[in-house]
Structures are given as structure tokens and as C-alpha cells.
Backbone:
């Protein structure tokens, strides 16, 4: 079980990560809006710009998923369930939470889900 002090540190780190992702997404969005707006584009430029916009859009989806994970971790902190695997209800290894503070699953459950493509 995490101490109150440690939970507050984790909460602040999660909020920092969340802000970083949102700032990055805003920057990527601004960049995607400027693609192809730098003069007359030939077919190669349009293709490259389309690909770049697709990449930026997929990053946005990844970032959105990460924000959802962070928000869920913040909610688990508030509910007193942080650090508990949502599948098996066992404690998640502290080292795993250090590396990935928004982890929902212990290593065993995560590996099991990945094995079946979930």
C-alpha cells in the first residue's frame, strides 16, 4: 500500500505527464494544420503532407489513450485503489508503477492479456 506522501507525488507526476501529453498534442495539431500551406504543392508534396497528417493523427489517438490511462489512475488514487491490478486485484509491483505510474494491471495479467491480443 502506498503512503499518503507517495500517492501525492504519484498524483503530481501523473498530472505533469497529462499536461505534457496535452501540450504535445496541441503542438502536433498546430503543425498538422500548417502542412501543405506553404505555397503551391505538387503531387509529391501532397502525398508527403497527407502521410505526415496521418502520422500526426495516429499520435493523437495514442496520446488520447494515454490521457485516459492517466485519468483512470488519478481516479484510482482518489478511490484508494491505486496500485491494485484491476483484473486479479493483487498489488502491482512498485517497480512497475515507478516505470509506468498509470499501469492498470500487474505484469502477469498484462502478459496474459497481450497473449490473447486484448
Residues:
Amino acid at each position: 500500500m502506498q503512503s499518503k506522501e507517495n500517492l501525492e507525488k504519484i498524483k503530481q507526476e501523473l498530472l505533469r505527464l497529462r499536461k505534457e501529453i496535452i501540450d504535445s498534442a496541441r503542438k502536433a495539431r498546430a503543425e498538422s494544420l500548417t502542412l501543405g500551406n506553404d505555397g503551391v504543392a505538387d503531387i509529391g508534396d501532397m502525398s508527403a503532407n497527407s502521410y505526415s497528417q496521418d502520422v500526426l493523427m495516429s499520435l493523437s489517438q495514442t496520446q488520447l489513450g494515454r490521457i485516459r490511462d492517466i485519468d483512470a489512475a488519478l481516479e484510482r488514487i482518489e478511490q484508494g485503489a491505486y496500485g491494485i491490478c484491476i483484473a486479479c486485484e493483487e498489488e502491482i509491483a512498485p517497480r512497475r508503477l515507478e516505470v509506468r505510474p498509470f499501469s492498470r494491471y500487474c505484469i502477469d495479467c498484462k502478459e496474459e492479456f497481450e497473449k490473447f491480443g486484448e
Observations:
- Residues 1-82 form one domain.
- The chain has two domains: 1-82, 83-118.
- The CA atoms of residues 7 and 77 lie 7 Å apart.
- The mean pLDDT is 82.
